[in-house]
């Protein structure tokens, strides 16, 4: 990660941690899961409202966790809101590969947009699980699993 993207990463994490998007409960949710990252103590709920066409019309998270887990959950909800369940699962897979450095966002095709701020997190293996927790929890919710753990 260049100095520039390191700085961008810090800014985005701080900003989303201070003002998380889609934080709280939903009036109506069709899918819900609870996610734990025991290594760090992150604990999140992800709820989604999926309509008959398979579109995630609304999604929200709440819980306690470190700045990275919250910022990632905030960015995750913003990224999947309005997308189809299949599209959200593709994004999950791309994000998983990004944080494990299996894809290079500058070279490989992807749909990650702003989520690429996490592209350097593989350098901090203990933080990878913080960044991916909300995604595992979303996938758990969509697959009707109640509880998800990164361990
Ligand atoms: Zn964490």
Give a verbal description of the structure.
This protein is α+β, with helices and mostly antiparallel strands and 151 residues long. It has a single domain (3-143), classed as Sufe protein. Chain: A (Alpha-Beta Complex), CATH 3.90.1010.10. Helix content is 42%, strand content 19%. The chain is built from four helices and four strands; from the N terminus they run H-E-E-E-H-H-H-E. Helix 1 (3-18) packs across helix 2, helix 2 packs parallel to helix 4 and helix 3 (85-99) runs antiparallel to helix 4. It starts with a helix and ends with a strand. The chain binds zinc ion.
Bound molecules: zinc ion
CATH architecture: Alpha-Beta Complex
Physical arrangement of strands within the biggest beta sheet:
3-2-1-4
- SSE class: alpha+beta
| CATH topology tier name | Sufe protein. Chain: A
Number of strands: 4
Give the number of domains: 1
| Overall radius of gyration | 14 Å
pLDDT below 50 for ≥5 consecutive residues: which ranges? none
- Report the order of strands and helices: HEEEHHHE
| Main CATH class | Alpha Beta
Helix % is: 40-55%
End-to-end separation in angstroms reads 27 Å
What number is the mean pLDDT?
A: 93
Please count the helical segments.
Answer: 4
Estimate what percentage of residues fall within beta strands: 15-25%
| Rough outline | globular
């Amino acid at each position: 990660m260049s100095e520039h993207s390191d700085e961008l990463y810090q800014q985005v994490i701080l900003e989303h941690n201070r003002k998380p998007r889609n934080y709280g409960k939903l009036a109506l949710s069709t899918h819900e899961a609870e996610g734990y990252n025991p290594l760090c103590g992150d604990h999140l709920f992800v709820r989604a409202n999926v309509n008959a066409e398979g579109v995630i019309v609304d999604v929200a998270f709440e819980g306690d966790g470190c700045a990275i887990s919250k910022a990632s959950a905030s960015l995750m909800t913003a990224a999947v809101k309005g997308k189809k369940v299949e599209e959200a699962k593709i994004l999950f897979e791309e994000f998983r590969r990004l944080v494990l450095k299996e894809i290079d966002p500058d070279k490989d095709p992807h749909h990650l947009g702003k989520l690429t701020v996490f592209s350097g997190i593989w350098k901090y293996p203990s933080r990878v699980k913080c960044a991916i927790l909300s995604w595992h929890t979303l996938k758990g919710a969509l697959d009707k699993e109640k509880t998800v753990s990164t361990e």
